[in-house]
Structures are given as C-alpha cells and as structure tokens.
C-alpha cells in the first residue's frame, strides 16, 4: 500500500474520515473497469445535468454484475430499484439526474441497450434501466424539463477514469446542509485473502438541514443567512467493490452507507430520499448461461466488517468532497448557496 494518503478536497483541508487508507485516486475509478462521466447544463435558470456510472467496459446486459439496493428513506422517484432488489443484478449503466429527468434517463438507457442487444424485448427479456435522482429545484428551473436523451448519452460517452467532483453533471444544482452540494467520491484499500482490495463510493449530495453538519474534527459549520428547515433533501450513494460478494452481502454493505450519512449529522427526515446501491465487479453473470448452475467465489461472512467500515468512511468523505469541491452558486430567481470550502478557509 502507498504510504502517501490520496488527496481529496476534504483532505486538502486537513479533514480525515476514518482510519482506512484511500486508494490512489480516492474515487470510484479506483475500482478497475469503472468509468464516470458528466453532462452539465448551467445557463439561464438551469443548474442541472446527468452523471453516468459505467460499471465495466463490456456489454452489461450480457454480462451482469451482482448488485443490491438499500432504501434508507424512500421519498424518491428512482427507476429500476425493484428489479435490482428482487434479482440481485445490475444490467445497465447507472444514471444520476434531477427528479424530472428520470424518465428521460430511462429512455436513453433502453435505447442504448437495444442498440447493443437487438434481441431485447424480442427473443429475450426486456431491460432494467437504473436511474436515480435528487431534486435540484431550489437552484434550477426543474419545471423546464430541459434535459434530453442526448444529454444522458453525452454523459455516458464522456465516462472515463477521471472523476470530476463538485457542481458537475447531476450535482450541478444540488444543495447540502445549507451549502452547495453536488457529486463527490472516495475510496478505501484493505486486504482480504492475501490480496489488496478496494471499495469506493460516489454520491449525489442534496440533503441535510442547515446547522446539522458535523465535520470529522467536531466543528459544526452553519451557512450565513440560512434558516433551520425541515429535512426535505435527498442523497444517492453508489458503492462499488472488487471483492466477490453475493447480492445479500451487497445489501448489508449498502446499509452501512447510512452510518456514513449519520456521521455527518443526517437523520433521514420524512421528506428525504436516501438510497444506496452497491455492486461488485469481481464476477460477471452471463445473461445466456448454458448450464443450470453457476459457481462463484463468495466472501466469508465473518470477513465482511472491513467492507462495512469502508462503506461508512467513503460515504462520509464523498459527501464532504462534493460540498468542498463546489464553489458558491447563484441560481434560479434569487436563490444562492455558499461554499463549504469558503467557510473552512474563513475558520482555519
């Protein structure tokens, strides 16, 4: 393992989440094969976009990945989660966007899958597109429904190993704890079976009441002029690992994203949509499997604690990265959100 901790917006400010060592990039791209892309729309009254997570470079419909979802609080309008929960597999890239962009993202993923697999809906089953959302309507004109399938496809085509964070893609118009929110990511390294393994998170942070945020050093930033309000935001957490796991184990790991959110001061309010999805890249499940049985390596249950710890730490750090990487923003009407980075610079 490297003796030099990976820098991130959070670590630049001297804030350390947990004790596990981060990966070389300290992002979701530390998991081999995963790519992330954004399409950002920031003009006029629009502050919105798509973020795409491509779990592996092959054909996801034909080579699915084990996956699971944990609905921490279900105030949300995501698509595809029921089938992920039932079958335990992921068969499309993941799109993140605003609440009114979900249908557009679904159509884009369906068209993409059919183009790659013409048999979908004809000689084999249909496709389960996964699109998750948060409401960016405070800073952006969500009623404009401005995002197109071309925007979703642009995010997918832009996917690569460099994970841009902050006010980009789906995170462009998001808010968190009264500050500017957005897209954030983090990773952790650990050893299992004599080999180095990794778990990483990418979050869409749009949750938390002003004044509730707790930093790893115990400080509680409060944005100026922000009033206390109900918890009505949302957060999407995507966790990925290269450890071989079954969907039941992945669901247990996804549940630990809630521990990372709680460390930040969140309590999952009635109007908050808090969802975690986890997948493993360690084995692929063939759509056209010839045999009646498949054989897979699966982690021993009593070795899973380190993944629980990594899920909590990466979720916590990814949310802070999203906030610190986002500059102050003005949006629709007189709306504005200050930057957590500016608060930290002023309270160093």
TrEMBL record:
Gene3D superfamilies: L-amino peptidase D-ALA esterase/amidase. GO terms for molecular function: aminopeptidase activity. It comes from the Bacteria. Keywords: Aminopeptidase, Hydrolase, Protease. CDD domains: DmpA. InterPro entries: ArgJ-like_dom_sf, Peptidase_S58_DmpA. The keyword Hydrolase applies. Belongs to the peptidase S58 family. This is L-aminopeptidase/D-esterase.
């Amino acid at each position: 393992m490297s003796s030099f901790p990976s820098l991130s917006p959070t670590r630049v400010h001297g804030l350390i989440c947990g004790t596990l060592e981060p990966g070389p990039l300290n992002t979701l791209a530390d998991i081999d094969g995963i790519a992330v892309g954004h399409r950002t729309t920031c003009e006029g009254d629009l502050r919105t976009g798509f973020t795409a997570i491509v779990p592996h470079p092959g054909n996801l419909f034909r080579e699915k990945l084990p996956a699971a979802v944990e609905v921490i609080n279900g105030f949300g309008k995501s698509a595809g989660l029921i089938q992920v929960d039932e079958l335990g597999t992921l068969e499309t890239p993941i799109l993140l966007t605003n609440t009114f962009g979900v249908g557009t993202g679904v159509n884009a993923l369906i068209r993409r899958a059919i183009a790659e697999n013409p048999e979908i809906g004809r000689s084999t089953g249909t496709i389960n597109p996964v699109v998750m959302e948060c409401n960016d309507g405070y800073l952006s004109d969500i009623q404009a429904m401005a995002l197109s399938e071309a925007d979703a496809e642009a995010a997918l085509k832009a996917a690569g190993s460099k994970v841009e964070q902050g006010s980009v893609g789906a995170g462009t118009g998001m808010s968190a704890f009264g500050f500017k929110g957005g897209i954030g990511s983090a990773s952790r390294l650990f050893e299992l079976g004599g080999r180095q393994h990794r778990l990483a998170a990418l979050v869409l942070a749009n949750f938390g009441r002003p004044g509730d945020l707790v930093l790893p050093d115990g400080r509680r930033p409060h944005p100026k002029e922000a009033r206390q309000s109900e918890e009505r935001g949302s957060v999407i957490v995507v966790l990925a690992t290269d450890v071989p796991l079954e969907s039941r184990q992945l669901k247990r790991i996804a549940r630990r994203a809630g521990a990372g959110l709680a460390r930040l001061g969140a309590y999952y309010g009635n109007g908050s949509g808090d969802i975690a999805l986890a997948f493993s890249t360690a084995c692929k499940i063939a759509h056209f499997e010839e045999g009646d049985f498949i054989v897979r390596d699966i982690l021993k249950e009593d070795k899973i604690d380190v993944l629980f710890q990594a899920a909590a730490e990466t979720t916590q750090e990814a949310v802070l990265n999203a906030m610190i990487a986002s500059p102050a923003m003005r949006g629709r009407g007189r709306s504005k959100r200050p930057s957590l980075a500016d608060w930290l610079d002023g309270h160093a």
